[in-house]
Amino acid sequence: MPIIGIGVDTCHLPHLHSLLTRHSPWRLVRRIFTVRERELFEQNFGALDLHKPLSKYPNPEGGPHWNRIPPPQRRLLSYLGGRWAAKEAAFKALYPTYHLQFRDVSILKEQGAKPCIVLSPDIVEAANVSASHVSLSHDGEIAMAYVVFERSCDEQTCAKLTKQ
């Protein structure tokens, strides 16, 4: 299948933490997550009080110090940062032909399964997307995502592509 686009993006988690010390995590979740993503988010983080901004953990050298942030908040930041990076990577994979909104893209991961990317039906039809792939990675203060979209082709077109 021919590739429509490839996108990659990173999210610096201390920067995201800085943002979430001014606004509640729920504000971000409501803005960028689809209904299904919000349901999965609640399953994972429902026990945390996310309706108020996160606490600041100052670093004497300036900026938040990753190791001072409590593990539950680091897990939350990794989760949000990975999904943010995946949505941005999806935007890059389809740009400039298709202009996506945050809620056109869902990053879903059921318990024990690998993550998957789901586009809104309108985008799938317009871009003729037949397959999508997403890889999320977290390392210390960085979350990274890599996205690939493929389009199906008829037998004749696929034969031409494989000869090139």
From TrEMBL:
Residues 5-126 form the 4'-phosphopantetheinyl transferase domain. It comes from the Eukaryota. InterPro entries: 4-PPantetheinyl_Trfase_dom (IPR008278), 4-PPantetheinyl_Trfase_dom_sf (IPR037143), ACPS (IPR002582), Ppantetheine-prot_Trfase_dom (IPR004568). GO terms for biological process: fatty acid biosynthetic process. Keywords: Fatty acid biosynthesis, Fatty acid metabolism, Lipid biosynthesis, Lipid metabolism, Magnesium, Metal-binding, Transferase. Pfam families: ACPS. One of its GO terms (molecular function) is magnesium ion binding. This is Phosphopantetheine-protein transferase domain. It comes from Spizellomyces punctatus (strain DAOM BR117).
